[in-house]
# Entry
Amino acid sequence: MTEASLDPARIPRHVAIVMDGNGRWAQRKGLKRTEGHAAGEEALFDTVHGALDIGLRWMTVFAFSTENWRRPLDEVRFIMNFNEGLLLERREELDELGVRVRFIGRRGGRVPGRVRRRIDETESLTERNKRMTLTFAFNYGGRAELVDAARSIAREARARRLDPDKINDKTIARHLYAPDMPDPDLLVRTSGEFRISNYLLWELAYAELVFTDVLWPDFRREHLYDAIREYQRRERRFGGVDE
Ligand code: IPE
Ligand code: IPE
Ligand code: MG
# Structure
């Protein structure tokens, strides 16, 4: 099935994806885990093109978590180099497509300086694009994001620019990495795992969750459309009742 069977009036505003299963994809083919990460590039770009074709405005993909540093050093090194190369080779294409590329996560710490520079350059290059915002969660953890928000709120309170008794949902949302980003309507996780893995903990509060067995390197736009079709069959309530 193609995008033809999607309801154009109910395309989610924001889709978040956990791109999982690269290692298992490679192992099943007798390849090294890192070859699975490399094969994920085609999956990502087919999905981005498919998302643009249906007018999706926000897409956020989990590329590297704050916990992924626990992996063997050569895999971590590969992922860092791979992401740097991907930005270098593909940022013009994304720019021409009208995609604004952004990053959420901790930029300091163990992220190599050259990767950080590539991230900054890509954000500047594409910052005026309006068609879609593609956000990479990179060195990202949902708890780290909330810790960082708490620190920044506490600093404002200490400077007496904020009254602690007036802290509410909006205060916290304003201190997240991308305060202008709407909450995801739909979360897709590949590879048959049924967990959040510290992704967008605050932002996913009312997202619809769709899980698929497809391993990330095999994921294509049709799988995105399948997930959106599933989303369109769901009834969202946000804690209320239907009248
Ligand atoms: C997702 O694939 C990519 C990253 C976490 C960087 P994995 O590498 O987690 O693949 P599996 O889950 O081990 O198959
Ligand atoms: C989540 O996948 C992080 C990314 C896809 C980048 P993981 O493979 O790291 O998550 P767990 O370890 O299965 O929970
Ligand atoms: Mg995994």
In short: Helices lie at 22-28, 33-53, 73-96, 113-126, 142-158, 169-174, 221-233.
